[in-house]
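Ticket 4471: requesting a sanity check on a complex prediction with fe (iii) ion. Repro inputs:
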Amino acid sequence: MTADLFDDLPGEPRSEAIVDGAVVLRQFAREKAEALLAAIDRVTASAPLRHMQTPGGHTMSVAMSCCGDQGWVTDTRGYRYQPTDPLTGAPWPSMPGVFERLARDAAEAAGYRDFCPDACLINRYEPGAKMGLHQDKDETDFEQPIVSVSLGLPQVFQFGGLKRNERPVNIPLAHGDVVVWGGPSRLRYHGVLRLKTGSHPLTGACRYNLTFRRAC
Ligand code: MD3
Ligand code: FE
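Returned structure tokens:
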């Protein structure tokens, strides 16, 4: 029981090196959380969150949207980045200033200067939603890091190896945590376990994850 009491304590901002190029910046986004969530609402008002189809014909449990010059999409034709939203045919909403500044600042804090993302994927997990182990390899330049921002309910992140069969390490990610994945960690398999039921004061019964990428 005692452990649960401390689960929700945010703690001080601090940075933890995980392995080879991956850095967790605990609480790096906490003070900007309200502004980030307001910006998510603006983006998803014109590019609605949706459950996309995998090339194998499954419906993803996570709801997704994008902003920036490029957006990541999946359908029965495959995975790819494209400049327009397939749902509306319109260009993806532009990247909010608060997104771009946070992504640059986090990359810099982790030692990656001049990160200039052209895509931000917005993931929304509701209870039961998960993302199986996968690699992010639809981008053109793997020298560019990926920055991820967690908001709302906590969720367990799984960090695997360069081969799918390597046993993953579990890393709990909380509201306000930012992770920068670069160098040799960039192509590691990763995923998130099913979101547990709960309620967060700012997001209610869900977790948002923002991932900033250089797609082209
Ligand atoms: C490690 N999202 O959108 S973020 C994804 O919580 C994705 O929504 C998860 O994996 C989420 O593709 C995890 C952390 C993350 C993102 C990209 C990575 C970790 C990564 C790329 C390489 C290595
Ligand atoms: Fe990923």
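Notes from triage: The pocket of MD3 (ligand 1) is lined by residues 121, 123, 131, 136, 146, 148, 157, 179, 181, 185-186, 188, 190, 192, 209, 211 (CB under 6 Å). Leaving this open until the requester confirms.
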